[in-house]
Structures are given as structure tokens and as C-alpha cells.
Amino acid sequence: VWAFAKAKLPHYPLFRKVANHIDSLESLVAFEPQHLSNIVWAYARVKISQPYLFGKIADHIVSLPNLEDFTEQDMQNIGRAFQKARVSHRSLYAKLIEAGCVIHTTERKRVSSPLQDDASLKEWWRE
User: What is the pTM of this model?
Assistant: First the structure.
């Protein structure tokens, strides 16, 4: 799906099939942090809404003891993808911030807390 998203080609049947497959998995431990980042980024980029997929990935990330295997880029891509897809997951966002991630809003304004004055981020933060 990454290649289709990179080319901005939303192949709906493919994206749906991939989302259904990932959702059917018992666990996501086989996925590297970059895989998780690329998956949510791809869906957000082509504006294909799959909230259950985002929820499953977020729940997996939150369940990890720490995010030491995630690069800053992985964390930023995940946070930005959730924001762009308008999928709210308070625990995920808290985990990213706890790990030291700095999320950038659409305006590229640096924020370190979801409670700052950026209206779009406040909206995204609400559950």
C-alpha cells in the first residue's frame, strides 16, 4: 500500500483487503515500527478511512512497554497520520509524547502537548 500511497493512487479494493488482513491477525508483533508507521501514513495520504485498522495499530503501540525501537520519524509519521485521518486515540498520543515525540501540525508549528492552543490538534485530541 505504501507504493500506491506514494503515487497518490487510492486502490480501494487493495487497501480494504490489506486492512482486513491486518485486522484479522491475532498480534502485530511481527511488524517493525517502520511498517506500522508506513501503514497508517499510506491510508492517511490517500484519505482512505479504516478506523478499525488505526485502532488496532494504536492499541498495539500502546501495549508496548516502551517505544525505544521507534525512531523519531516513525513516531512523527504515526502521530501525523492519525491527525490527518482524523482518528482519535488519546492513549496513543500520550504514549508518543511520553516517548519524547514532538508532533508537528499542518502549519508545521511545533507542539509538545496536545493541550496547546492549536485548534486542529485540540479537535484531534478529543475522544
Answer: 0.79
Beta strands per DSSP E along the chain: 103-104, 110-111
Neighbour-count burial of 49, counting CB atoms closer than 10 A to its CB (0-12 exposed, 13-18 middle, 19+ buried)? middle
pLDDT in tens, 9-62: 788 999 999 999 999 999 999 999 999 999 999 999 999 989 999 999 999 999
Given the C-alpha cell 478529543, which residue does it identify? 126
CA distance 20 to 14: 10
CB 16 within 8 A of CB 57: no
The residues, ordered by sequence, that sit 6+ positions from 26 with a Cβ below 8 Å of its Cβ are none
- Residue 120, number of CB atoms within 10 A of its CB: 13
Helix, strand, coil shares, percent, the chain, to 5: 55, 5, 40
Kindly report the number of other CB atoms within 10 A of residue 90's CB atom: 13
The cell 516513525 sits on which residue?
A: 74
CA angle 93, 54, 43 (to 5 degrees): 110
